[in-house]
Amino acid sequence: MKFDVFFSICQTDVDGYMPSERVMFEQFFDQLKLADRLGFETAWVAETHLSCETQKQNRNAVIPHFKGEIGLNTDILQLAHKAFGMTKRINIGSAIRNILCNGGPLAHAEAIKTFLTLHSLDPDEKRKLFLGFAAGRFPFSNTPYGIKARNELESHGWNVLKGELFKQATEIFMRALTNETFSSADLKPILLSEDQFRNHKEWAAVQAANQNIGYPQTELGIEVPPFWDFETVGVIPFEAPMDLLQLVVGSHDPAVQIQANMYLPAWVFNLSITPTTTIEETHKRMARYYNPAGGRWNRSYMPRTSLIFINGDEHLSPTEQRAKAKASAQNALANYWRAMEGTLDPRKVAEAVENAVYGNPEDVAKQLASKYDENDRLMLWFDFNNHDNQAVKASMEAFWNKTRPLLLKGKK
Question: How far is residue 412's CA from residue 328's CA, in Å, rounded to a whole number?
């Protein structure tokens, strides 16, 4: 297994305590430096845009009961420069960068190429930026930037259209990274067709709306005008080194995964809650479509998050360690469901605890060995709903010094 670490930098209330933004970042960098010293390969950092607290004032707030900010990192590129300056070995990854907001895919491609150019000025620099990219988790992060239905037709078809929009954004993003010069007229058009919709009623509403809108319609479907309309552009710096970048697609849509790999080698993001069938289907598909410039597809090219609640306190017995770890998992996950849904559902908490990994170091090793393939890459999440910096670091050390050797021994 490959062992990475995931940081949420989630500023929320935990047992009546909410750290300041400064404290949140100070603790993140403290934990990052420990991860570097221990030997974790990559530090993946959550990325969020616009305030979760502020969006609660609006109609149709998506997380009305969440107190605080789901994540404080708004720009992995700025954070990565500082992170690389404070560490020696660890790579930095985004989990996940939204390429729709903040100017769209052209702006993100330009920022990344500038970052890579500056990052590579040190001839001895070998550490990579693992750039996970997606369409964003919450609508409130996208709508201020024009990523929303522009008329009645698009409103009726938005659930389908937003997926097609991300496909086009991916095409723009990848072509810009590979130094193509192109215009929006050169892009594959956004098409809406009946087979994309769950039922005929939704498609009929789109067609009816188009009688007033007048979008071009052919036997292939209704062609939606581009959200990014531009004449021929070239995204600089043209000489940005791509060898220090690894792209990771944050989408389960097979068409997007395949499309990205038409241009550059792109891994695929995954979540610990994803069904096993989806995971195995993705591995099978990527073995066929992974860009050959990246070599052969490997299971480690699909990073998977895993919630870790470990107690390695040497003053406690293994049974006591297990009990403390399980209590921590139950408390953290109960707080999470309260925040995300506004009610405490004991069944969901129980299921979430069972999906998490918890216990003493030996328990954690056994659970990871049974849950994952020996060639998987795990993004281990230690700071979930936990603002106790020393406790988080103790968990990281317990895993690395006690659990990891057991997994490596088992592999031998």
Answer: 32
- Residue 56 CB contacts under 8 Å (≥ 6 apart), including other chains: 63, 64, 66
For the beta carbon of residue 226, count every other beta carbon within 10 angstroms: 16
Listed in sequence order, the residues at least 6 apart from 92 whose beta carbon sits closer than 8 Å to its beta carbon are: 42, 43, 45, 76, 79, 80, 83, 84, 127, 128, 129, 130
- First vs last Cα of the chain: how many Å apart? 12
The rounded distance, in Å, linking the Cα atoms of 258 and 266 is 9
Q: What pLDDT is recorded for position 339? A: 65
Bridge partners (DSSP) of residue 217 are 222
Residue burial 95-130, b: 16+ Cβ < 10 Å; e: rest: bbbbbbbbebbbbbbbbbbebbbebbeeeeeebbbb
Q: Running DSSP on this structure, what letter comes out for residue 228? A: S
pLDDT band at 66 (very low <50, low <70, confident <90, very high): confident
Residue carrying structure tokens 């007229």? 185
0.85 cut: is pTM over it? yes
- Distance CA(306)–CA(325), nearest Å, equals 15
